[in-house]
Design brief:
- GO terms for molecular function: methyltransferase activity.
- This is L-histidine N(Alpha)-methyltransferase.
- Keywords: Methyltransferase, Transferase.
- It holds the Pfam family Methyltransf_33.
- The protein is built from 11 helices and 14 strands.
- The chain is of the alpha/beta class.
- The strands form 3 sheets. Strands 2, 3, 4, 5, 6, 7, 13 and 14 form an 8-stranded mixed beta sheet that branches.
- The protein is globular.
- Bound molecules: N,N-dimethyl-L-histidine.
Length: about 325
């Protein structure tokens, strides 16, 4: 039999996604490509800004409810704690310290798209909380989820902090939750953070900081195309712009072309035309309330069994289990 390989003119998913997004109308780029080494560093800086309330809200919840959260994780045969999108582990360390102090039998399996971030986390835990049994795994959420079902010898606690789900449109968020649900057995649980709807101004301030860090984070997409795809974007010719729709709860980030211009992406053989004030949509950061979270859970085959929040309901961490058990 003759084997005909499928050919694509792109070498990487990044190349293909950039070509697709920038030849679309309206133009868009996928936010996952913000996170190279520089993007990771900028995101760390964002998490340390006072305007980006999400980190401190969630940290406050984890500190206030450490014992009850840790108790809900534990089981007779111990458990595997699988964290998707682990980042620098600043918030997780609060739980890990408690779990180790209580002598709970668990493995910590952080998953992140960035190997660099995982290496740093492993190094930090070795000195800060040496009792943690850690096994890192590099990869995207969707790829890792396929392997999740292999962990089935004891209880799985799947953890996603930082309202990372908010970067997915509802349809994709349901797919993501469905995949998690399919990998869960009766005893397993999902512990997930959701940023809540709140004063629109507070949300806008979090994504439009006066220090210019979020702007640099958003523009890292342009910087990456310049260095990896031999493009000639002038970052000063684009404006970072944030909107928040209080009805849908969607915060959206854009890069807006300040003038009519032509940008070359040599590696893709593309010449992209921008009208003055034309946009590139770069990210959504969805905000939630209990109704939306319950709807997402139901659509995915899950149910909310417990929730933890701060005194102002700024942010919530929910526990989900499979609906059919
Ligand atoms: C990672 N993610 C949940 C962040 C968010 O809030 O959407 C990314 C971010 N974008 C701008 N600031 C932070």
């Amino acid at each position: 039999m003759k084997f005909t390989p499928t050919t694509t003119k792109y070498e990487t998913a990044f190349e293909e996604d950039v070509a697709k997004g920038l030849t679309n109308f309206p133009k868009y780029l996928l936010s996952k490509y913000i996170y190279d080494e520089k993007g990771d560093k900028l995101f760390q800086q964002i998490m340390n800004m006072p305007e980006y309330y999400l980190t401190n809200c969630e940290l406050g919840i984890l500190k206030k409810h450490t014992a009850s959260i840790a108790d809900s994780f534990n089981s007779e045969k111990g458990f595997d704690l699988i964290e998707l999108g682990a980042g620098d582990g600043k918030k997780t360390k609060v739980l890990l310290k408690h779990l180790v102090a209580k002598n709970y039998d668990f493995n910590y399996l952080p998953v992140d798209i960035s190997q660099h971030v995982l290496d740093e986390l492993e190094e930090a835990l070795k000195t800060e909380i040496p009792g943690v049994k850690i096994k890192t795994q590099q990869g995207t959420y969707f790829k890792t989820l396929e392997k999740l079902a292999d962990y089935n010898s004891r209880k799985k606690v799947i953890m996603v902090l930082g309202s990372n789900i908010g970067n997915l449109l509802h349809e994709k968020a349901i797919d993501f939750l469905k995949n998690i649900c399919q990998a869960m057995s009766e005893e397993d649980m999902l512990f997930m953070g959701f940023d809540q709807k709140k004063s629109p101004q507070q949300i806008l301030d979090a994504y439009n900081d006066p220090h210019g860090i979020t702007e640099a984070f958003n523009k890292n997409l342009l910087v990456r195309m310049n260095s990896e795809l031999d493009a000639d974007f002038n970052t000063d010719d684009f404006k970072h712009w944030e909107t928040y729709n209080p009805e849908s709860g969607t915060a959206s980030s854009y890069l807006v072309s300040k003038k009519e211009q032509q940008v070359k992406i040599n590696k893709l053989g593309l010449n992209i035309h921008f009208d003055a004030w034309e946009t590139i949509h770069t990210e959504i950061s969805q905000k939630y309330d209990d109704h939306i979270v319950q709807w997402l859970a139901k659509e995915a085959g899950l149910k909310v069994t417990e929730e933890f929040s701060d005194s102002e309901n700024c942010y919530k961490n929910y526990i989900f289990r499979r609906k059919d058990f």
